Amino acid sequence: xxxxxIMGAGAVGGFYGSRLAEAGHDVNLVARGEHxxxxxxxxxxxxxxxxxxxxxxxxxxxxxxFEPHPDYIFFAVKSFDTAYTIEQIxxxxxxxxxxxxxxxxxxxxxxxxxxxxxxxVIRAFCRVNSEMIGPGHIKQVKFGQIVFNEDNGTRSxxxxxxxxxxxxxxxxxxIPDDIRRAVWIKFTWNSVHNVLTGLLQKTIVxxxxxxxxxxxxxxxxxxxxxxxxxxxxDLRKTDVAEVVEEGMKLGAFRTSTYQDRVKGKKLEYDxxxxxxxxxxxxxxxxxxxxxxxxxxxxxxx
Length: 301
What we know:
This protein has helices at about 15-20, 35-40, 80-90, 110-115, 155-170, 180-200, 205, 210-230, 235-245, 255-260, 275-285, 290-300, and strands at about 5, 25-30, 45-50, 50-55, 60, 70-75, 100, 120-135, 135-150, 175. It has about 300 residues and is of the alpha/beta class.
């Protein structure tokens, strides 16, 4: 069995940590605040479409409190905490430690790879609709998938090993031929739905009731497509069109940015609008819609 550190055991990290612990892996959780105190006192409770779990797992705010050099670090903190968290885990990343980058956005993998080397970081993302409904208590209502692979598409030894671990834990996962394209498709989804639901405080189903909002989403996806092509990503017109089409089917889906806005938490918009503005300026690509959305979010902040 593997030793696994969940770095950021919130709605996403905590959900996957519970599944891995149920499969018999040695799982340690890093969290903070009231959530951490609940984990230490009462354990982790997960209400899930895959079953309900209640585990008392080792928990701390300090990743060095556990056995050094875990086999895996599931890196699931918010994007704005990436730089700080890299320094937190630096002492425990051993020669064989693999870091699974499960964050939103398109910039975090590069920060992790720069800090620890590409041989220690696996490009990935997840599709999971989960929410903290109380300290130490997670509700997961839809999806639960992890997507990962090497940039060159080869099935390396570390990819094969992670595939085995997730399979035995009954965690749905996909290993696409082009992980960078897959990341940008997920990024498109977030940069449309997270951005608009967080800004307007509406669920996804409410967005799609307004034809003018649908037209705005289509303009947003075209700007993302332009930036992706400038970056050398094989993102396709059909990919971004499907993002809008699939969004129409989701119903009252509460994105993570929507949840954070309602709860008064710090918002992760910079990983979406900010990243696109930075990439657009780097490549000389005009993206007036995202420049406007980014300015609005900065006004909120």
